[in-house]
Specification:
Elements lengths: L1 E4 L2 H15 L12 H24 L11 E7 L2 E11 L2 E12 L8 H15 L4 E7 L3 H9 L3 E11 L15 E5 L5 H11 L2 H4 L13 H13 L2 E10 L4 E11 L6 E7 L7 H15 L5 E6 L3 H9 L3 E12 L4
Parallel strand pairs: 4-5, 10-11
Antiparallel strand pairs: 1-2, 2-3, 3-4, 5-12, 6-11, 6-12, 7-8, 8-9, 9-10
Helix pairs in contact: 1-2, 2-7, 8-9
Length: 335
């Protein structure tokens, strides 16, 4: 049995099949990855492999870039049977997110997941990271207990909603009076920062701090972002909604519509609850955009439970609750 650090360029062809096989749960079919989700994951790894040298060069100017997509593979007799990856959350050097804690079904309950998690936590400590977070399916009680035993606690929850590709878009309601929509550009980062600072619960901010440097993009980061967009398998559009009476941002919404075969269309909505009246319009607008550009695909929306107005509007628009997730976090004591 061997624990080794992976290299995204050398190991991507091993990691994708491993994730596909490991995220199989005979005890609950609803937890399994769909073929469309596997396609999206494979595309993500493909992009990272292509851009990894660029991130390493960028790391000479921004050290956080060198920590993007780190992790470990667990091997038994030369076969990869477990995997974990970790990256800065939104390139925040103080908060890392653990993802894809994957162990093949026949190798579970052997302590492999515990050692993979411990390896990433130790790596985060070496980089003097303050917080480590992860997501876990809420009904996966053994996994939740595993993370609690490692020192993680639940600090928030979210819902994965899906809208079937066979459903047509519903008529778009009128934008409520007193609001205007403008395209979101990276130069508008301060408006989004203010929105997220105002609406994110304090309990969430303890693990996912909202600070300016998380939203500000330096010239280097803007260049890297442009390169990523060129390789991205989806067309992305993003907008801000302004409340004209107060000159404040009421919401941001975005659509990510596939331009390659397979995969899932995705939408995201960040809404100030003081402007809940916007929720139906935002959901329908995102649905219409994705269907117009990329028809015949399911649409996914991941929204926090505390975004109750967005959640209800999505359910009213034909989305169904597929999976509940817990966000769990750990504060790391520095040596």
């Amino acid at each position: 049995m061997t624990l080794r650090a992976f290299n995204i360029q050398a190991d991507a062809d091993v990691m994708v099949p491993l994730i596909k096989a490991a995220f199989y749960y005979p005890e609950n079919d609803a937890w399994n990855l769909s073929p469309e989700e596997i396609t999206s994951i494979a595309d993500g790894f493909s992009i990272l492999r292509k851009l990894y040298p660029i991130f390493q060069i960028g790391g000479l100017f921004n050290p956080t870039l060198k920590t993007v997509m780190r992790g470990y593979i667990w091997e038994v007799d030369g076969e990869a049977v477990g995997l974990v990856n970790v990256s800065p959350l939104g390139l925040d050097s103080q908060t890392w997110v653990i993802g894809n804690v994957a162990v093949l079904p026949e190798h579970r309950r052997k302590g492999i997941a515990q050692q993979l998690i411990q390896a990433t936590v130790d790596l985060a400590r070496q980089h003097r990271v303050k917080h480590v977070v992860l997501e876990v399916i809420a009904d996966n009680v053994p996994a939740v207990k595993l993370y609690e035993n490692k020192g993680f606690e639940i600090y928030s929850s979210s819902v994965q909603l899906n809208r079937d590709a066979a459903l047509e878009a519903l008529p778009l309601p009128a934008l409520p009076e007193g609001y205007r929509i403008e395209p979101y550009h990276v130069g508008d980062w301060e408006a989004r920062y203010t929105l997220m600072k105002n609406i994110t619960p304090l309990a969430v901010q303890e693990y996912e701090p909202i600070h300016r440097k998380k939203f500000y993009k330096s010239p280097l980061m803007r260049l890297l972002r442009s390169i990523v967009i060129l390789f991205a398998p989806a067309k992305s559009t993003s907008y801000l909604v302004w409340h004209e009476a107060t000159h404040a941002v009421a919401a941001r919404f975005a659509s990510h519509s596939r331009r390659k075969e397979g995969g899932i269309n995705e939408i995201e909505i960040e809404l100030d609850p003081k402007h809940a009246i916007l929720a139906p319009y935002l959901v329908h607008r995102c649905v219409q955009e994705t269907i117009q550009f990329s028809p015949g695909r399911d649409i996914e929306l991941r929204t926090a439970r505390w975004q109750a107005d967005v959640l209800q509007a999505a359910l009213d628009a034909g989305f169904v609750n597929r999976t509940e997730w817990y966000m769990m976090g750990m504060h790391l004591a520095q040596p």
